[in-house]
Design goal:
It holds the Pfam family SBP_bac_3. By secondary structure, the protein is α/β, with parallel strands linked by helices. The chain folds into 2 domains: 146 residues, Periplasmic binding protein-like II (D-Maltodextrin-Binding Protein, domain 2), CATH 3.40.190; 94 residues, Periplasmic binding protein-like II (D-Maltodextrin-Binding Protein, domain 2). The chain contains 10 helices and 13 strands. α6 links the parallel β9 and β10.
Length: 262
């Protein structure tokens, strides 16, 4: 082996060792030994994470992080995770996991791993409880308010015929006002937006979810190769789905049960 080849081999071995160390640093054994789990959560993304009046953080993701810490029997150490720093927080080793309304895509999947889905994030049709609507085919004879050019507009337009009135608005607020005034029978929006509307106890008209248009659920971000953590999280997510704790969080923050089959 030439000196240059030896140097290259040594550098590659060092890089592999560093990568292995980075993964090891995020394993459950190290977290338990440390006594804390470091979790990236949002602080300005309701209902996933937001500041409470006392200065602490509350929200769907915050509760999920606390459930995990409690299950592991360790303290929760929170780091603010925003859209731009979620992946770097993981790859740099500053946090063990990220719970921050993380959507999965091909680019992110190349550098980090993702758990099973833990939170619903979808676009859907919402309306009154006393009209049974379970899909686009049930909208015949009704009107639906949408914001012009949104995914809800495009999907509903493609899935309904002339017997459904799609009423388009330039803003979501205009569409909501039309629904509350009775100008349209239903409206289409994201579940997070609908949950924010449902926070108001004095709504002039009831809002309940009717059906999903498309779904882009949230996942927990894990350092790439941290198989031990990934297996634990997937098992824990399955557990809290089965025993109802995850649904309780959904009702508290999304104002609705988890979608059927979630």
């Amino acid at each position: 082996m030439t000196p240059l080849s030896l140097i290259r081999s040594t550098l590659l071995a060092c890089a592999a060792s560093l990568a292995a160390f980075a993964v090891q640093a995020g394993t459950l054994d190290e977290i338990r030994e440390r006594g804390t789990i470091r979790v990236g959560v949002p602080s300005d993304s309701p209902p996933f994470g937001m500041k409470a009046p006392d200065g602490g953080l509350v929200g769907y993701d915050v509760e999920m992080a606390q459930l995990i810490a409690d299950d592991l029997g360790v303290a929760l150490e929170i780091t603010n995770a925003v859209g731009s720093n979620r992946v770097p927080l993981l790859t740099s080793g500053r946090v063990d996991i990220v719970i921050s309304s993380f959507g999965k895509n091909e680019e992110r999947d190349k550098v980090i791993d993702f758990s099973d889905q833990y939170a619903p994030f979808y676009n859907g049709v919402f309306g009154p409880a006393d009209i049974e609507v379970n899909g686009p085919e049930d909208l015949k004879g009704y009107s639906v308010g949408v914001t012009t050019g949104t995914i809800e507009d495009l999907e509903l337009s493609a899935k309904t015929g002339d017997d459904v009135t799609i009423t388009r608005f330039e803003s979501g607020a205009s569409g909501f006002s039309a629904y509350f005034s009775g100008a349209v029978d239903f409206f289409a929006t994201g579940n997070v937006t609908a949950a924010a509307l449902m926070e108001n106890p004095n709504l002039p008209r009831e809002i309940v979810p009717k059906f999903l248009i498309n779904s882009s659920p949230c996942y927990i971000g894990v350092r790439e190769g941290d198989t031990q953590m990934l297996e634990y999280l997937n098992g824990f997510i399955a557990e809290v789905k089965a025993d109802g704790r995850l649904n309780e969080i959904s009702v508290r923050w999304m104002k609705t049960d988890l979608p059927e089959g979630f």
